[in-house]
Amino acid sequence: MDINQIREEIDRLDEELLRIFNQRASLALQIGEIKKELGIPVYDPGREKRIFDKMRSANPGPLEDSAIVRLFERVIDESRRLERIRTKGI
Prior knowledge:
Layout: H1 3-38, H2 45-58, H3 65-87
Helix pairs in contact: 1-3, 2-3
């Protein structure tokens, strides 16, 4: 592959990531509504730890586990922020 082909593949993956991030955010909003109805806090440190542990164990590389955790921390932070905005805080 030449550089342009590689960049095209990166662009394709970026579009797929965008779709997946928004799909994940939509699901987080659904969970936020359920949490609001049940009076459950938005922040669930146990759930986040399980996600990080699962992603570390599933990580084939080349990204280091710490990089994977940082990426997922950001995704989860944004999902949590969205939940709080849409459910007006819990």
